[in-house]
Specification:
Helix content is 36%, strand content 24%. By secondary structure, the protein is α/β, with parallel strands linked by helices. The protein has three domains: 110 residues, HUPs (Rossmann fold, 3-Layer(aba) Sandwich); 121 residues, NAD(P)-binding Rossmann-like Domain (Rossmann fold); 161 residues, 2-Layer Sandwich (Dihydrodipicolinate Reductase, domain 2). Helix 10 packs antiparallel against helix 16. Bound molecules: cytidine-5'-triphosphate.
């Protein structure tokens, strides 16, 4: 009996998939089809797959060609499967010619002709109305947004807004965007969504105006400086059936989601402590180091460290305490935040003028998880157990999820998926979690008002 194996995502099942499976079956007597999981696709940078894995499996099954269907969820699995199932022929479409030649040492590799003029990508593009988007703010992060959005179907950035013309004009010329420096309402007129990447203190106003004008909003963090403002924005979005997404990059990255799922699975026992650090030495003279009101460690990076704490320990904290080191010009160059919960505790440190190891440690009653810097792109973390009597030594599980590009593509993809009515119930960063982060930001703002040294 000749066993054949093939793999694919099979999103929005189409004629090309059908032909491929039919031809693959004809190569032998028994066909195994590997269907990718969502996480595997996301991790390898295939963002905005629409059908969930069960739907995709069902579509493959209903062709009647597959004798066995398996899921593919990690790199290197093909070699394992070929050996496990005693496969004779590995096959995929001709778009992959050369890529899988390395499997020749295990079985025969056949590239089947690809059906012309059809792909899941083109179907997705037709299905999604292209969302015309405008960018507010024209700094570094806006550049990265534009570069990364090329990897996401269904978004086209057409306009930029910035009252500071010296920044706006070269930016909009470089990226061929409509430029607007005065009239925000005019900027909003011909777009359906905005990405807010302006300075921290302006996010709320720009977001509110955009939502009132009926536009979807993705805003850089922190979304607001108060809980009430965050509640107001999420309330507005809900009322107007718009998407509002706070762009805390880690929340949407596949590795971070894996980390959170592992913590929530109970592997570490009850979680008693979360420690999250994020520090970056900002250049002297930079906005982060000179804007005493809206720069500084916490407002720059607070959302990054609050994210794992709120996601793991929840939003019902009992108390929050701040310890801050101020620069002579009143900028918060380094800070430590202690958050108390009923049965657990958390510490977060951020800084723009003091460098620490930026690690994330989650401690439980059975073991702990450690993710070294840069944990927010989550390419490596370990779950560690230490034996009571050290008789068998320590047990360490290493996780190395993949992460593509700069990572912004994951949040952009989530934004577009939500706009198109998918991922509505996504748990990656809920409104409640984002509001809880705003509440801590509000406490920080109140605390600093009471203690910023007068220069
Ligand atoms: N395939 C094919 N002809 C097409 C499209 C896909 O033969 N027109 C084959 C691929 O070569 C692969 C299998 O179908 O062996 C599953 O491919 P998959 O990546 O799921 O489909 P695509 O339509 O190529 O998806 P995407 O556009 O998202 O890359």
């Amino acid at each position: 009996m000749t066993k054949v194996i093939t793999y694919g995502t099979y999103d929005l099942f189409h004629q090309g998939h059908y032909n491929l499976l039919k031809n693959a079956k004809a190569l032998g007597d028994y066909l195994i089809v590997g269907v990718t999981t969502e996480h595997f696709d996301e991790a390898r940078g295939k963002v905005n797959v629409i059908d969930d894995v069960l739907t995709r499996i069902e579509n493959v099954r209903s062709t009647g060609f597959a004798d066995k269907i398996i899921v593919e969820d990690h790199d290197g699995q093909k070699i394992e499967d070929i050996q496990r199932y005693g496969v004779d022929i590995f096959t995929v479409g001709s778009d992959w010619v050369g890529t899988f030649d390395y499997l020749n040492q295990f079985c025969k590799v056949v590239y089947l002709p690809r059906t012309p003029d059809i792909s899941s990508t083109s179907l997705r593009e037709n299905k999604f109305k292209i969302m015309k988007t405008g960018i507010v703010g024209t700094g570094r992060i806006a550049e990265r947004f534009l570069a990364e959005s090329k990897y996401v179907s269904g978004i086209e950035t057409v306009a930029a807004y910035n009252p500071v013309k010296e920044s706006l004009i070269p930016f909009s010329e470089k990226w061929t965007l409509q430029a607007e420096s005065e009239d925000y309402d005019k900027f909003l007129q011909d777009i359906g969504a905005v990405y807010i990447a302006s300075t921290n203190e302006t996010h709320y106003e720009y977001a509110k105006k955009a939502l009132l004008a009926g536009k979807h909003v993705m805003s850089e963090k922190p979304l607001t400086f108060t809980k009430a403002e965050a509640e107001e924005l999420y309330g507005l979005a809900k009322e107007k059936k718009l998407v509002l997404l706070e762009a805390v990059k880690a929340a949407y990255s596949p590795g971070f989601q894996r980390l959170i799922s592992i913590v929530q699975s109970g592997k570490l026992g009850e979680i008693r402590d979360v420690e999250a650090n994020f520090t970056r030495l900002a250049k002297d003279g930079s906005r982060e180091r000179t804007d005493a009101k809206y720069g500084g460690g916490f407002l720059e990076y607070g959302s990054n460290v609050l994210l794992p704490i709120i996601k793991i320990l929840g939003k019902d904290f009992k108390d929050v305490n701040f310890h801050i080191l101020w620069d002579e010009n009143g900028v918060d160059i380094y800070n430590k935040i202690d958050i108390e919960y009923e049965n657990s505790m958390a510490t977060a440190k951020t800084g723009v003028g003091v460098k620490t190891e930026g690690q994330l440690v989650v401690s439980g009653t059975k073991g702990y998880l450690i993710a070294p810097s840069p944990w927010w792109i989550t390419k490596h973390f370990e779950v560690r157990y230490e034996d009571e009597d050290y008789s068998t030594g320590n047990k360490i599980e290493v996780y190395e999820p993949s992460f593509q590009g700069d990572g912004l593509r994951y949040e952009i993809s989530e934004f577009i998926m939500k706009i198109n009515g998918y991922a509505r119930n996504s748990y990656k960063l809920t409104a409640e979690e984002s509001i809880a982060m705003a509440e801590i930001t509000e406490r920080y703002m109140k605390f600093r008002t009471g203690c910023v040294p007068k220069s």
